[in-house]
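Question (not urgent): is this output format expected?
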Amino acid sequence: MSNEKRCTGCGVLLQDENILQEGYTTNIENDLCQRCFRMKNYGEYQVITKSNDEYIDILKEVGKTKDLVLYITDLLNIEKNIEQIRSIIKNKMILVLNKMDVFPKSVKESKLKMYLASKDINFEEIIVISTEKNYNIDYLLKRIKYFQTSKNVYVVGHTNAGKSSLINKLIKNYSDKSQELTMSPLPSTTLNMVSIDINNYLTLIDTPGLVDYGSMLNHVSPEMVKKISAKKEIKPRTYQLRKNQSIIIEDLVRIDYVEGEKNSFTLFISNDLKVKRLLNLFNNDALKEKNKITYEMKYDEDLAISGLGFIKIVNKGTINIYIDKDVDTFTRKSLI
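Got this back:
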């Protein structure tokens, strides 16, 4: 039997006919699909793959409305193509920089906002928040009220940016509803649009996250995903490297410093990840079977590793990276 009832956790259409298809539940009267039920109660995760074409079609539908849009991004993993969603959706948009709680307290939010503002993408406002610490959530709500054009406000972003966490925080703070969106540290948790009435003037509509196929989170075990996902304030680790020295992060990535003066490499990654320094890159072939990429670093640039975090490199020099061929890396002007 099937009906038009949707899972309150991920928004997918519920069905009790095929256990292998998304939306399966043992009883159509249930509020959650089996996937969300098992994720919520047992911490289990079942991968569901949708193509980004489907997600983009949903975003295009959002773009046909005149409603305000919140674009959520993870400060530790700001997308290289942050303009992509803006190019699809022309609505009024607030850029929400999430997960300030994992950034070192020494980092000033004004500097982060200036960095994003310099990209010259048309946002109504850039707001730094932490759903974990309830930071700036009241201010965000005030700005939503200021910019909204109707009761509906859409929430968009890439997977794992914290969209569902933010909505759940807004429900907890400002609503008498008991509904919660399914949250997981793994990608692709929200499968379809989920609508939640926060109060009589605000309905938040959560959309599926665009899947960043180049994110490391899509290419490691669930156990490693939990290790990579920073949960506490990051303690930056700085290594002074000379030519022909290396850094290895777990069994995920190797960075060889092959040319340049003495240089400073500061890692902004989860505290749970083990880092090893090699004093002579010629004496150890660890991870050299991985895909090799060479970068000519300029002064004060970051090496960003999608899903993992970033490394601030102070001086110019040549580096070789050994990493899974499906994981995206790129360089950018230093974020901090």
